[in-house]
Design a protein that fits this description.
The protein is mostly helical. It is about 65% helix and about 0% strand. The longest helix has 21 residues, at about 5-25.
Amino acid sequence: MEMFPERFAQSATEEARSFLDAIKAGDLETVRQMIQSNGDLLFVIDDYYGSPVRAATNKHAEIADFLARIELQRLREGSVPKNHLYGAIHDLGEAAHSETGYRGCESLRSEAEPVVAGFLAHDDEEIRYIAMSVLATHWDMKHYAQNKK
């Protein structure tokens, strides 16, 4: 039985739009409330900015940090949907990188690096590739190459 699929899709889109608007406006309290109500808003995609973490990175450091740490926690827990693993790993690399990340991201970098490195052993080749790419771009990949021997 199909129950208003178009209406559901429209409301999901409206919720995602409201979430992205709150991020762009720098409204951390609304962002917190919306994530608490629907944690999967973390994985909506904005046509211009991409992920919510990237939407916040340039203008709203405290929102970028909040979202990146939730993404990090979800990666640790294994609760990131498989179709969003690639983006979540990439987000952490970008958010924790001093040149592309937000101001004050140094502590996130030290927490995120071992989590991203853990995906080097993932059974999906694409996920291993993005982990290796993020580590090589944003951290010292030599450390992981030596430890793999």
